[in-house]
Specification:
Number of helices: 2
Order of helices and strands: HH
Radius of gyration: 24 Å
Number of strands: 0
Structural class: mainly alpha
Helix content: over 70%
Oligomer: single chain
Largest sheet: none
Shape: rod-shaped
């Protein structure tokens, strides 16, 4: 009977889920940023290649 209140007060699982969500959001933001940077770099290198004789 004493384990049920103790399980209801335990927040370690919630903390792990929060850290997982934060890591997923950081990964998503990184992927989007790197993809946009990659497209800009491709355009810059194309411009440089076209300018060379």
């Amino acid at each position: 009977m004493t384990t049920k209140p103790r399980l209801l007060r335990d927040t370690r699982g919630a903390t792990a889920i929060e850290y997982g969500l934060i890591a997923a959001l950081i990964a998503l933001a990184s992927i989007i940023a790197f993809q946009m940077l990659g497209l800009n770099l491709a355009a810059i290198f194309t411009t440089i290649a076209d300018a060379l004789p």
